[in-house]
Amino acid sequence: MSQRVAFQHRHKSFELLVTDDGAIELYLDGVMRKRRARGTKEPQYVWTNVELEWEEHHYIEVRFWASSGKLAITVNGEALLQEVLPVST
User: Fold this and answer.
1) Contact 84, 70 (CB under 8 A)
2) CATH architecture of 3-84
């Protein structure tokens, strides 16, 4: 079963989708920016660079460990969200 995690950074809406096949997808304002298929190595990793203000860049990184459900989201290296998603068996 797919899982969604919505989060905000400043005035932008983000969403992380963990798909039924184990891929992770990062969306910005409803548009997919990155997708990473589930592989044998952990964590899965997606990122996007967003310009929020004039020349003000924010580097959004998502790391997901499918085996434990651990999710870590950072902005410019600073923690934004950390949680554990239910692990599908």
Assistant:
1) yes
2) Beta Barrel (2.40)
Per-residue CA distances from 14 to 33, 39, 40, 41 (Å): 10, 23, 26, 25
Could you tell me where the beta strands, DSSP code E, fall in the chain?
Answer: 3-9, 12-18, 24-28, 31-36, 44-53, 56-65, 70-75, 78-84
Cβ-contact 73, 80 below 8 angstroms: yes
Tens-place pLDDT, residues 29-68: 999 999 999 999 999 999 999 987 778 889 999 999 999 9
Identity of the amino acid at 62:
V
d(CA 62, CA 81): 9
Locate the domains of the chain by residue range: 3-84
CB 64 within 8 A of CB 84: no
Structure tokens at 25: 């997808």
Overall pTM > 0.85: yes
